[in-house]
Amino acid sequence: MHLPFFLERPAVAIIGEVCYTSLIENLNYKDVPCIKYGISKGLGLGIVAGGAIVKVPQIIKIVQAQSAEGVSFSSYMLETLASVISLAYNIRQQNPLSTYGETFFVTIQNLIILSLMMFYRGKGTNAFAILSSFLFLGTIVARTSEIQTADGAVVTTALISQGMLTILQALTIPINLFSKVPQIVANYKNGSTGQLSAFTVFNYFAGSLARVYTTLTEVDDMIILAGFMLSTLFNCVLAFQMALYWNAPKTKAGEAVPGEKGASGSGKKKAKKFD
């Protein structure tokens, strides 16, 4: 079977010439390796597309409420730090874009959410400082340059060596896990998920689960695989809390959730807190 050229080229670009010939032209559906690879590529592209909008509902929810009550500031700071490092690591490793592309979009959305948190607390200057710091860190970690030696050889140099970057990538595992802990604790203490977006939480869980499969299929890197496996576990806890507290109208302390009628003055004060 032959696809029209405007479909053939994207298909070849996604699954490669060999698997395209086997699965599309020869209809060889017993080619298990190519089937697994095709599924992995499809999931990967879906995750990247989902990553472009995964936190948009969270952003909208904060803007509409003009409050980030219930959303952990420390969780987002840690998650953004891990995302910046992971993005630089994957770029330097030249991994397929389908295995990490959503990290770029998530990082941008996290920076927007952090800025909104600071803005609604009346600290716009701090928002600018946070944005600048993360952008500077990403540039330093990802930047490489090529130098031609006297004998004509091309040597790649970087401000952060590949060995150091590998260590930083390994550190993103505990950073990512710890980034979930403040949010999990806050949900438990409040008996509510506040302004936390259900769309974001459930999509994060599904995405991290799918990333375990795509990493196993396309990337031979135990550091990245271990990170996604543990992240899936913690995202599962957050998804469970979201379901558990779905209709919870009040915090555990019995205070009205900010935004509802009858919210007390002390409840409004708590809206100023990040965690």
Automatic annotation (TrEMBL):
Subcellular location: Membrane
InterPro entries membership: MannP-dilichol_defect-1, PQ-loop_rpt
Transmembrane portions of the chain: 103-120, 126-142, 154-175, 222-246
Keywords (A to Z) from UniProt: Membrane, Repeat, Transmembrane, Transmembrane helix, Transport
Chief site of localization: membrane
Bilayer topology annotation: Multi-pass membrane protein
Region described as Disordered: 253-275
Gene3D superfamilies per UniProt: 1.20.1280.290
Source organism, top-level taxon: Eukaryota
One Gene Ontology cellular component: membrane
Family statement drawn from the similarity comment of this UniProt entry: Belongs to the MPDU1 (TC 2.A.43.3) family.
The name this protein goes by in its record: Mannose-P-dolichol utilization defect 1 protein homolog
Native source organism of the sequence: Lunasporangiospora selenospora
